[in-house]
Amino acid sequence: MDQQNNTLEVPPHVLIFPLPFEGPVNCFLKLAELLCLSGIHATFLNTEHNHRPLLRHTQVLSRFNRYPNFRFQTIPDGLEHDKPVSKDRFMEVMDAVDVVTKPFLREMMVSGRLSRKSERPVTVPLSLWI
Predict the structure, then answer these.
(1) Overall pTM > 0.85
(2) Model confidence pLDDT, tens digit, residues 18-35
(3) Interatomic CA distance for residues 21 and 17, integer angstroms
(4) How many angstroms separate the CA atoms of 20 and 69, rounded?
(5) In angstroms, how far is the first alpha carbon of the chain from the final one?
(6) What is the per-residue pLDDT across 53-88, written as a single tens digit (0 to 9) for each?
(7) pLDDT tops 60 at residue 15
(8) 118 φ, ψ to 5°?
(9) How far apart are alpha carbons 44 and 49 in whole angstroms?
(10) How far is 32 from 19, CA to CA, in rounded Å?
C-alpha cells in the first residue's frame, strides 16, 4: 500500500510528439498547456524544422514560461531547413523524421527517460503517428 501512495505523489511526465506539421503542433501545444494546468509534467518534442519558425513567429516561449512543469525538446529531422514543409512533401518529411527519430525514441522507451540529460522519467509517451 505504501508503494501505491508513493507512486501517486509523483505527477506523471507526458512526452508529446505531434506530427511535424503546423496543425498538429498547434493542437498538441494546447493539450500540453492543459496538462500543465493540471499539474502534469509535459515535454514537447518538436523537430528542428518546426521549432525554429515556432519560436520566430509566435509567443510560445512567453506562453509556456509560466509552467515550471513544461519544457521543449528538439530533435534533428533530416530536412533541408530552407524549404517550407507542405502537404506535397508529406512522405519526404515522414521518411526523414522516421529515419532520424527511431533511435532516439527507442532509447527513451528502453531507458524510461526522455534523454540521458532528463532527470524525470517519461511515464506517458503521446504521439499521433508513432
Answers:
(1) no
(2) 888 888 899 999 999 999
(3) 11
(4) 23
(5) 35
(6) 899 899 999 999 999 999 998 887 777 666 555 666
(7) yes
(8) -75, 135
(9) 14
(10) 14
The set of cell numbers assigned to 70 is 513544461
Give the chain's domains with CATH numbers. Answer: 14-127 (3.40.50.2000)
Q: What residues contact 64, with CB distance under 8 A and at least 6 apart?
A: 32, 33, 36, 70, 72
Considering just the CA atoms, what is the radius of gyration of the chain in Å? 16
Given the C-alpha cell 520566430, which residue does it identify? 56
Spatial contact of 124 and 12, defined as CB atoms under 8 Å apart: yes
Backbone phi and psi for residue 83, each to the nearest 5 degrees, phi listed first? -100, 130
Cα–Cα distance measured from residue 5 to residue 33, given in angstroms and rounded to the nearest whole number: 26
- The number of helix segments (H) and strand segments (E) in the chain equals 5, 4
d(CA 57, CA 94): 23
